[in-house]
Write a structure and sequence with these properties.
Structural class: mainly alpha
Helix content: over 70%
Radius of gyration: 18 Å
Shape: globular
Mean pLDDT: 85
């Protein structure tokens, strides 16, 4: 019974986080750069686990009853994604991406941490997915089975972000080429700017 609940939680969580998103694109890029990968993966995983556990504990109901919070996140997230998208567009245009050493300073981990936190918590959909949707699905199980569902959902997050962050090094031979980085940054720019526009145009709910 507990195994079935954990498996259901793993599948539900994996289905939500594996789809390409702004956070995944950020983790992929940091993995390719091989800079602060552990910090990025840990931040994403801990953020997901916190939100999942809050949802299973029933705190997601507060998010549903406080739509103003989602609207603040909606516009804040749209602004952040637009700025990040424009930065990626500039890198693509100038060919400033790549694996050249020393591109980021020693203190860059602080900036990367802040960006990672923004990708995690400024996305209003993450609250709908983790706290409300997964939290709601967990109510199909009672007692310890509900927390087994949560454990499975958390495990999916650990598996995915670890694979994305550390497994991206397999693509390094491709990204030795500056052209490949320009293509990636161009894709990231289009993707981030599109997400920003969607957040502005499409109501959250």
């Amino acid at each position: 019974m507990y195994f079935a609940a954990a498996l259901a939680g793993f599948a539900a969580s994996a289905g939500l986080i594996i789809a390409i998103g702004s956070q995944n694109a950020f983790v992929l890029r940091q993995g390719l750069l091989q800079r602060n990968v552990g910090l990025v993966v840990t931040t994403c995983v801990l953020g997901d686990i916190m939100l999942i556990l809050c949802g299973v504990a029933g705190i997601g109901a507060l998010v549903r009853e406080w739509p103003e919070l989602l609207q603040v996140l909606r516009y804040g997230g749209a602004t952040f994604l637009a700025v990040y998208g424009l930065m990626a567009a500039r890198r693509a245009w100038n060919g400033a991406g790549g694996l050249a050493p020393g591109m980021e300073g020693r203190a860059s981990w602080r900036r990367i941490l802040l960006a990672c936190l923004a990708f995690t918590f400024l996305n209003p959909h993450v609250y709908l997915d983790t706290m409300i949707l997964l939290g709601g699905l967990s109510t199909q199980y009672a007692g310890l089975a509900q927390w087994a569902f949560a454990a499975g959902a958390c495990l999916a997050s650990v598996a995915w972000f670890s694979t994305l962050g550390y497994g991206s090094r397999l693509l390094l031979p491709v990204f030795r080429s500056p052209r490949a980085w320009r293509v990636l940054d161009g894709f990231v720019a289009i993707f981030m700017l599109s997400l920003s526009l969607l957040l502005l145009l499409r109501p959250i709910g």
